[in-house]
Specification:
Elements: E1 3-7, H1 14-25, E2 29-31, H2 38-45, H3 52-71, E3 75-78, H4 84-90, E4 97-102, H5 105-113, H6 123-131, E5 139-142, H7 147-163
Parallel strand pairs: 1-3, 1-4, 2-3, 4-5
């Protein structure tokens, strides 16, 4: 089994889709946001985007976990992983498969406007799209469909990949 990293901007559905995928694949689910140090959470909550220095120790810690999860049979991790160098850090100790939840700024902004339980202010969404380096080596799915259909799409792509 593999570690699957659900990636994309805030509001793309990484947690919801990741939890559904993990359940369907009988894997544990982890939300990368839960591993942020308190200083990062406070910085984001105050409307400031994290810089690479803020992210580095967090990504390195997640990379250690990716290795452990791979050795214990796989997992699903929700993590924005917006830049190629972040993805490289996440897979620096162990291979993982990225699943890119792709959506438009307007669709994701409308979804974020409906959420009250998240520390990512809507104003930071634009900065996430600006930072996003779309992955070439990832399973890419459009988020303009219901979560169950997104999971069906992901599983179909995983199965196709495994056959090749």
């Amino acid at each position: 089994m593999m570690v699957y990293i659900m990636m994309g901007v805030s509001g793309a559905g990484k947690t919801l889709v990741g939890q559904k995928l993990a359940k369907r694949m009988d894997l544990p689910f982890f939300d990368g946001d839960n591993f942020h140090p308190e200083a990062n959470i406070q910085k984001m909550a105050s409307g400031q985007p994290l810089n690479d220095n803020d992210r580095r120790p967090w990504l390195e810690y997640l990379a250690k976990n990716v290795k452990e999860w791979q050795q214990s049979g796989g997992a699903v991790l929700a993590c924005s992983a917006l830049k190629q160098k972040y993805r490289a850090t996440l897979t620096s100790q162990e291979e993982a498969s990225f699943i890119y939840l792709k959506g438009t700024l307007s669709l994701i902004a409308s979804r974020l406007a409906e959420r009250s339980d998240h520390f990512m202010p809507e104003e930071l969404l634009q900065s996430q799209f600006e930072a996003l380096e779309e992955p070439r080596e990832a399973i890419t799915v459009s988020i303009d469909q219901p979560p169950g259909e997104i999971v069906d799409d992901i599983i179909a792509q995983i199965q196709m990949k495994e056959q090749h």
